[in-house]
């Protein structure tokens, strides 16, 4: 049994937590694993193939109940825990994060501990993402608009980007509201753009850059370019990076008299 499995099994058998959420090897890559008994933890793994953001399960009351839960965490999952706590969706101390430092298993039981770890382990963009982003930034406004119109034309409104996002936790989404009908439900150029602009604006200052939306999109729209670029704009305008816990709530729902307003034209 790996040290990670041993630690998870111990937390379950001592009764410290009622559930450990982690990853196990599936047929086509890694998949989420929900452990309620110590023996369930035997197959847990945590490596660079663990790409799904399992932090999204932490806001599912039907899964979590009211007890304490542990989650095996990549840096993206840790940022998710911090952001969800800042947005008052999780209670500090109710989620134990299990991470790996080499062969050793770290157990973090408070947001301060997670924040300290994240501050010491900043995650840079991949070279591929940096190249794509600078290519997009070099386009004129009109070229950029045409690029996104072409991309969004492919959207089939499956909402997989929403379903995969750990920060999309509203019980009722704007796309399901039909009185008034803010966004047309069918897939068409204008309504696709309306949908995605809405999604991205709702993520502004909250997106933790996990890339889950991008990986989930069945028609391969490079959604990560939107979310990464938006995260950069928010950091530049407000000096806040999502998932760092440096603000209570989120940037766009908080007002400071000295906030820049140079984005309003
Ligand atoms: S990268 Fe996508 S899935 Fe991840 S937090 Fe941002 S919007 Fe949500
Ligand atoms: S996952 Fe892709 S196709 Fe599905 S709604 Fe989102 S952008 Fe559209």
Number of strands: 5
What radius of gyration results from the CA coordinates?
Answer: 19 Å
Return the string of H and E elements.
HEEHEHEEHHHHHHH
Coarse structural class: alpha/beta
Task: Name the descriptors.
265 residues, alpha/beta, 2 domains, 5-stranded mixed sheet, 10 helices, 5 strands, binds iron/sulfur cluster
Question: What is shown here, in short?
Answer:
The chain has 265 residues and is of the alpha/beta class. It folds into two domains: 3-120, no CATH class; 127-253, no CATH class.
Task: Write structural notes for this entry.
With 265 residues, this protein is of the alpha/beta class. The protein has two domains: 118 residues, no CATH class; 127 residues, no CATH class. It contains ten helices and five strands, in the order αββαβαββααααααα. It has a five-stranded mixed sheet with strand order 2-1-3-4-5, sandwiched between helices. A hairpin with a 2-residue loop joins strand 1 and strand 2. Helix 3 packs across helix 4. It is globular. The mean pLDDT is 90. The chain binds iron/sulfur cluster (2 copies). One iron/sulfur cluster binds next to helix 7.
